[in-house]
Amino acid sequence: MSQKMILDLDTGVDDAMAIAYALASPEVELIGITGTYGNVLMDQGTRNALAITDILGHPEVPVFRGIDHSRSTESFEVLDISAFIHGKNGIGDVDIPDSPRHVEQQDAVEFIIESVHKYGKDLVYVPTGPDTNIAAAIEKDPSIIDEIGNIVIMGGALTVPGNVNAWTEANISQDPEAANILFRSGAPVTMIGLDVTLQTLLRYEDTQKWRDTGTYSGKFYADMVDYYIKAYETTSPHLGGCGLHDPLAVAVAIDPSLVTLIDINMKVDVEGATRGRTIGDETRLNDPVKTMKVAVGVDVERFVHELMTRIGTLVAEH
Q1: 33 three-class SS
Q2: Which GO terms describe its biological process (predicted)?
Q3: Which residues pair with 202 in a beta bridge?
Q4: Where is 249: in which H helix or E strand?
Q5: Beta-strand (E) ranges in 157-214?
Q6: pLDDT digits (tens, 9 = 90+) for 164-198
Q7: Are 292 and 183 in contact (CB under 8 A)?
Q8: Contact 49, 58 (CB under 8 A)
């Protein structure tokens, strides 16, 4: 059986690249996208996921509505900085047509649980926003912890500062309690954090190659990512490009050899001044069983080549 993948997305710009990377990868079958909040509100994110899978020629991928706010809040509002980086519509303010399809009737948490029971170790789940949906699934059915193949998250920062404050990364900051439930659950989790994602960059000369395909989706991806690169010129001028956060998590889910991993049991601080910090769990420091891996190095050249080749091939066809 080929590996099955679920993407859990707050579909902004790098999430859109994650969708394309997954669809362009013959090693995996994207069996569904579960919606979350963060870069955009839930409804905008699921709308984007439906529209993007359509223009990439994959209308068979179902999209599910997830939980639309964190465990500690009653609602969610998009931060101004998120709208600046991803655009008000989440996809660089580029217009693409609405899908004729709709989100599924089944909710995301049920779909996650059902998929784990169906595919077991052949399933990899990749959340690239807050971990609200997977935490809820674990609470509802703890048996999935031992059944699932792998959970590869984009989030956190262990060896570098956060991007919300000195210690907190944005996805973790949206729902620290959910991330802490996941980290301490004993589920197999690989953390792809700012330690590695900010080493992987795209530049205007890269996106031009997609535009040069002359296709609708090639132009869409180039325009969208150019918006993202422009935002990075303001927020992170020292980088010289845009970070490839979410697609790197997808790539590692497919090929872990792209990164250097350390085995460490992790936790998330949920109280006090360091709320949102991802750090080793001192209570499990001497536990011989390490359920988490954290990426601390990345083969930048090979990953960027894979991303450009895979997404380039896909957009050239649509």
Answers
A1: strand
A2: purine nucleoside catabolic process
A3: 242
A4: helix 245-254
A5: 189-192, 201-202
A6: 999 999 999 999 999 999 999 999 999 999 999 99
A7: yes
A8: no
pLDDT in tens, 240-288: 899 999 999 999 999 999 999 999 999 999 999 999 999 999 999 999 9
CA neighbor of 62 nearest in space, from 105, 24, 4, 18: 105
Sequence-distant (≥ 6) Cβ neighbours of residue 285 within 8 angstroms: 265
| Nearest alpha carbon to residue 262 among 297, 293, 298 | 293
φ, ψ for residue 280 (rounded to 5)? Answer: -60, 145
Q: Which residues are catalytic?
A: 10, 245
Specify the length of the chain in residues. 318
Task: Write the single-letter amino acid at 160.
Answer: V
CA distances from 116 to 46, 137, 182, 282, 293 (A): 22, 10, 15, 30, 20
Cα–Cα distance list, 88 to 13, 31, 82, 280 (Å): 11, 28, 8, 36
Q: What is the rounded distance in angstroms from the CA atom of residue 204 to the CA atom of residue 147? A: 42
Q: How many Cβ atoms from other residues are within 10 Å of residue 156's Cβ?
A: 25
Domain that holds residue 153: 3-316
pLDDT bucket at 79, cuts 50 / 70 / 90: confident
* Start-to-end CA span in the chain (Å): 28
* CA 212/CA 311 separation, integer angstroms: 13
Distance CA 84, CA 82 (A): 5
Please report the sign of the dihedral spanned by the C-alpha atoms of residue 256, residue 261, residue 265, residue 270. negative
CATH number for the domain spanning 232: value is: 3.90.245.10
Please return the burial class of 177, using the count of CB atoms within 10 Å of its CB with bins 0-12, 13-18 and 19+: middle
Structural domain tally of the chain? 1
- Rounded to the nearest 5 degrees, what angle is found at the Cα of 5, between the Cα atoms of 172 and 261? 55
